[in-house]
Amino acid sequence: MSRRWPASGAGGLTRSRGCKKERRGISRRENSPFGVRANANEVGVEAKSNDQGKDAMALYRNLISCDEPTIRGSISKSLGILSQAFRVYGPRSVIISFNGGKDAVVGMHLARAALAKHCEDSGLNFEEQKLRVIYFLSQEREFPEVREFVENQVSKFNLDLITYETDFVSGLKECIEKEKHKRALETTEKDPFPMGFVLGTRKGDPNCGKQNHFEPSSDWMPAFMRINPILDWDYGQIWNFLLWANLEYPSLYDSGYTSLGGTHDTRPNPHLKKPDGTYFPAHYLSDWTLERAGRDLRRSSDMECDLQKVQPGFSSANARTVGLIVVGDEILKGRTPDTNSPYALVKFREACLQVKRVAVVPDQEDDIVEELRRQVSACDVVVTSGGLGPTHDDVTLYAVARALGQPMQRSRKMEDHIRKTKAERNGISVDEVSLTDGEQAMATLPLGSFLRKNPDKPQAWPILQCGRVFVLPGVPGFFEEKLDTICEHFLPKRRKTPLLRARLSVDELSIVSALNTAVDRYSRVSFGSYPLISGRKEGGVQTVVTAESENEAEVKEAMAYFIECLSNKSSVLSVDTYNRLHGESASSD
Fold first, then answer.
1. Counting Cβ atoms within 10 Å, is residue 352 exposed (0-12), middle (13-18) or buried (19+)?
2. What SS3 state is found at 506?
3. Distance between CA 100 and CA 279 in Å, rounded?
4. How is residue 353 annotated by DSSP?
5. Is 547 left (phi over 0), alpha (psi -120 to 50) or beta?
6. Residues 55, 116: Cα–Cα separation, whole Å
7. Which of 13-27, 43-57, 231-245, 313-327 has the largest mean confidence?
8. 393 with 328: CB under 8 angstroms?
């Protein structure tokens, strides 16, 4: 869904006012476009005093007194998270990931403020503690503007910088080992000491899944705590904060860049391009789902999202939620009916999976990428339908690779399978098989993908799984066969959720009061109400009310209570159990 800035402007976009380029690579806006004037001295980040502790404390006081409604609550929550981090781990064991991007800038300044408050409350000297930040530098691929910005901020705010010119995994391991060695020299304690890394992770970032504000590192990483203070912030709040607080940021954002990676995979956002070929600033972007439209494959040092690795051995055995993406211009244009979605919804219900979202998207890579990122961040498992094959509009695999931040590479297993299938079909040996360009394209898959065979039909075409995404063909017969295999063999076996259905001889308006009363009393029971079209054939209106919960006794109690609340109890025609409306036409508003 497209979201708009609260200020007016052409096309609903905010207008830039007072952009000030202080030095190459660094930008700052003197006035906020949200009607809130926040000059540098008011917020405390540009004060002339050399006392960093006083400056940081002034920043804290201004942040907690923020009256900008779009960010006030988020600021308070984030400061609370960081305060807990410093209280539990201590200032020297909390390290801020500072790669110079907009999210990192917000996180760094929030941490400065929280550390100042922690030092004041604990009687510590802010100057002696110094905020610790870590920077993973790629000499060949880092934007010069970003590197200059990081160096400037480190000097300006007296940050304790740790720099690693390597990939983030190697650098992180080295950092933790050095901290362990240093701690061993300072204390006789043998137990592992806790460390926390403050990240700029936000919900919707690729591969960040269902992280919480405090999330232990994955088992393939060294042991530490991921601290995500801006996890619930959206793109608009990030820019609202930066502009309201008048904070400096890399000048690339004023040139149309909305998400920064490396020079090899980042370009200005095409949705901000002007007719003259230049670009609007990043904060002009009105549809925040397009934040990463200027990004290609993610760089390997992107700490925020790589910390949750897409592992080839991802298990779907504990999945509880699922999303479905149907790809096809022919469906959106009405040339072909979508039969895969209804079939999938029935199968998911039979598998006791909660469907979080169903989307139909065009054969456009950017659209598929955006929807995949959205669903991967919200669902345990995602199933795609369509967009596979050798033709120009078969772009689903490339979209999956981009969404998961993985490069495309030739799969020897898929190539061998294609050769074997082709040899059997033509009655020749595998050595005699040569692959066409189209077949070679079909054997090129996202890195980390693996092929899952049908245990009942091992010779059948394998199912492609990329992390938590199952990539299926769009042809209904093939789709249904693959989905049957997934639900039967690769998803958890759970007891079906108890569900009761009451059929009433009155319309929905007559039961509103009773239904609301039951909903308020039984918060753990999911109620539904559906006008039944087939009831009109019998000369009257009918309504179906459903009650569903994992607790069977509670479902029965809730339905009985709803019926008791009805003003006309004789309107109840029947109460029974069901999984779906067999042969009935129901509608819900």
1. middle
2. coil
3. 21
4. P
5. beta
6. 9
7. 231-245
8. no
Q: pLDDT (tens digit, 9 = 90+) per residue, 198-229? A: 999 988 676 566 789 999 987 777 788 999 99
In angstroms, the CA 349 to CA 499 distance is: 12
What gap in Å lies between CA 206 and CA 260, rounded to an integer? 14
* C-alpha 200, offset from chain centre: 13
Q: What is the pLDDT of residues 43-89, one digit of tens each?
A: 444 444 447 888 999 999 999 999 999 999 999 999 999 999 999 99
Backbone angles phi, psi at 135, to 5 degrees: -135, 120
Structure tokens at 327: 């790809």
Instruction: State both tokens at 353.
Output: 């999976």
Cα 73 from chain centre? 21
Is the pTM higher than 0.70? The answer reads: no
Cβ neighbours of residue 41 closer than 8 Å, sequence gap 6 or more: 47
Phi, psi of 175 (to 5 degrees): -60, -45
d(CA 418, CA 423) in angstroms, rounded, equals 8
pLDDT at 546 over 60: yes
CA distances from 548 to 15, 511, 526, 580 (A): 49, 18, 5, 12
Nearest to 195 by CA among 300, 64, 93: 93
